[in-house]
Amino acid sequence: MALAAPAHAGRTCEERPATVRQVEQGLRLAEATLKALDASGADVVLLARAGQDLSKYGLRWSHLGFAYRQDGVWRVVHKLNDCGSDRAAVYRQGLGEFFLDNPFRYEAAFVTLKPELQQALLPVLADNARVARLNEPRYSMVAYAFGTTYQQSNQWALETLAGVAGPAINSRGDAQAWLQGQGYEPTDLRLSTLTRLGGRLTRANIAFDDHPSARRFTSHIDTVTVDSMFAWLQRRGLSSTPQNVQP
User: Fold this and answer.
1) 3-class secondary structure per residue, the chain
2) Per-residue pLDDT of the chain (247 residues; tens, 9 = 90+)
3) Model pTM?
4) Residue 2 placed within a domain
5) What is the CATH number of the domain that holds 190?
6) Domain count, the chain
7) Residue 169: which domain range?
8) 175 in a structural domain
9) Does residue 240 fall inside a structural domain?
10) Would you say residue 113 lies in a domain?
């Protein structure tokens, strides 16, 4: 598990000190989330935040992680990109820290996973080696949903969930094959050639070369998003409907 290096996912990566107002808002959201999680009766949920404004793509949430309760305390395990690089690692944080990243919108959402999934995930999330088993350090913010060259943050969470939900999942390829068989559909981002070129030239954490050429050259970028995960989980009966949280 990585420790306190500058990292991000689903937010801008600006090295600016947080203001008092931002800290207050983040902690208020964390407090409201804590109350909602306690009231849910769950031990494991998928917890989302709005780090960036993705409304132009029809998306409400940018990033999620697993929130789990251990000895009465809620913790969050999620994957974060090392700022300005093409590498990422898995982190464990408290609820307060999860919301102190100066998000675009101080709002959260979570889905409660079905009991069998919660119980299967709990020992995995508490074990540093097991929780990082399907982590790929090579990072791209728009990694291809069914490729193994890179991996973005939401993709790690989805594949980790598949690792306990599907039978005989020993690799990322196994997890992705199971997800396809279970009807998971990634988000189709429509990104122009100019947008793709600009992103690849100016950001180390954006790459498009893992996407199938036929899709990429017609501006279709298929990647894992919170919104697509929430929709699939509900279709498959694996979670509750999303519950929104505001401070």
Assistant:
1) CCCCCCEECCCCCCCCCCCHHHHHHHHHHHHHHHHHHHHHCCCEEEEEEECCCCHHHCCCCCEEEEEEEECCEEEEEEEEEECCCCEEEEEEEEHHHHCCCCCCEEEEEEEEECHHHHHHHHHHHCCHHHHCCCCCCECCCCCCCCCCCCCCHHHHHHHHHHHHHCCCCCCHHHHHHHHHHCCCCCEEEECCHHHHHHHHHHCCCCCCCCCCHHHHCCCEEEECCHHHHHHHHHHCCCECCCEEECC
2) 443 344 555 444 556 677 888 899 999 999 999 999 999 999 999 999 999 999 988 999 999 999 999 999 999 999 999 877 899 999 999 999 999 988 899 999 999 999 999 999 999 999 999 999 999 999 999 999 999 999 999 999 999 999 999 999 999 999 999 999 999 999 999 775 545 544 444 568 899 999 999 998 888 899 999 999 999 999 999 999 999 999 8
3) 0.90
4) no
5) 3.90.1720.10
6) 1
7) 7-245
8) yes
9) yes
10) yes
